[in-house]
Amino acid sequence: MQLTNNWFSATAEAENGSPIFISGRNDVDKFRTSEKYRERVEIYWNYAPHFNNMPSDIDGELMEKVLVTLQNALERNNFSILTGIYTGDGERTMVFYTRNSRTFQDILNTALQEFEQLPLSLYVENDSAWNEYQEMCEIRPFAE
């Protein structure tokens, strides 16, 4: 299976009216239906909100560097698939589907060693039906 880097963009609104920017990955059906990626890991990064409750430029640059590092480490050999990124209202959420959440955490910790401690927390859930991914795709623009 070949993982592509084809993404869609969408927006949503938090309960307080703040914008939330969403990046969702297209072309993951082969991974979704393979039944190998049964666990969903969500990585939450709380940040000090700035204009429109978005991250500052400095925080945004660090978030991008961390995202690239994690994606490179966790997607190696298609071990995990980054499917969505939500940013807004003081939080960034990165959603991965993975083969094994314990190994995921080991890879994550190794990959992040080059960074100072980050304000990250993880949530793991069995989601073999990819429910979160399907919900995110419901807001995908029709033109995509």
Ordered list of secondary-structure elements with their pairings:
Layout: E1 7-13, E2 19-25, H1 29-32, E3 39-46, H2 57-74, E4 80-88, E5 91-98, H3 101-111, E6 120-126, H4 131-137
Antiparallel strand pairs: 1-2, 2-4, 3-5, 3-6, 4-5
Helix pairs in contact: 2-3
What's the CATH C level? Alpha Beta
The name of the CATH topology is Alpha-Beta Plaits
Calculate the mean pLDDT score and round it.
95
Class inferred from helices and paired strands: alpha+beta
User: Can you tell me the number of structural domains?
Assistant: 1
Low-confidence stretches: none
Number of helices: 4
The count of β-strands is 6
Radius of gyration, CA atoms, in whole angstroms: 15 Å
Helix content: 25-40%
| Spatial strand order of the main sheet | 1-2-4-5-3-6
Name the helix and strand elements from N-terminus to C-terminus, one letter apiece.
EEHEHEEHEH
Beta-strand proportion? 25-35%
What is the annotated CATH architecture?
2-Layer Sandwich
Give the CA-based shape. globular
Q: What is the makeup of the main sheet?
A: 6 strands, antiparallel
Measured distance between first and last alpha carbons: 22 Å
